[in-house]
Amino acid sequence: MALFSKEFGIDLGTMYTRIVEGGVVVLEEPTIVAIEIEKQKMVAIGEEARGMFGRVSDEIIQVTRPLQNGVVAYYEYTQIMLGEQIKKVSGPLMISKPRLMVTHPHGVTSVERRAVHEAALEVSRDADLVPQPLAAALGIDLPVGTPSGNMIVCLGGGCSQAAVIAMHDIVAGETLRMGGMELDEAIVSYVRKKYGLVIAQPTAEQIKIKIGAAIPQDEELSMELQGQDQVTGLPRPFTLTTGEVVEALQTPLDAIFENARHVLE
Fold first, then answer.
1. What is the pLDDT of residues 1-38, one digit of tens each?
2. Could you tell me if residue 195 is left (phi over 0), alpha (psi between -120 and 50 degrees) or otherwise beta?
């Protein structure tokens, strides 16, 4: 049976889960699940669950991320989500469970690593783990097998990792439990303080992607937006520029840069 089973690589991230087969991404969707609170039953995953964010009653359905800061926070939800995703990419004619290679953040505890491994084993015939910085280095064809070091920085949704790799191993590395979601929260906080408006995390993420930058830019971009007034509760339009986003992101970016600098030292 194992002869006819598939092999998948899974990048299990806080924000997105990606499944690769034969060097091709066959699935990419948000690492989000929707849970019916009364029955503790999963009713949606991925894009469908993200579509429920802010549109369903929090008392009836909880929309949550089963991974927090790169590690498993809700084991059962993670295992069910992985199972459903593998069904999607395997198709209805799957003869036997696939073999998996799953990424995990560098430097996690043995308990956190075991949670990922056991969740993967529940939906596969065999599962191996690989640190995310090493997987990323292999993915961009860094010469990881040489004696000279190669440095890589992985900025994920829930954590940031910096590592120096040589001879197929991580020589030095550190993981900061801060990533893209903290950048989104920094934008949300900036808009609230400066304009007195409330915007949602998905809106902040779009701001970051479309007009965001780490340093001041020669070309200033802007974006027309709408937020909820903190006083009246009514929607109010406003305009945000690249320069403002740069200002908003300085504190979390400084921490990420310092993490990379510390690894170099």
1. 444 578 999 999 999 999 999 889 999 999 999 999 88
2. alpha
Q: What predicted TM-score, i.e. pTM, was given to this entire model?
A: 0.84
pLDDT in tens, 203-250: 999 999 999 999 999 999 999 999 999 999 999 999 999 999 999 999
Q: Say which residues have a Cβ less than 8 Å from residue 35's Cβ, sequence separation at least 6.
A: 41, 42, 43, 61, 62, 63, 64, 77
Q: Is 4 exposed, middle or buried (CB count within 10 Å of its CB: 0-12, 13-18, 19+)?
A: exposed
End-to-end CA distance of the chain: 50
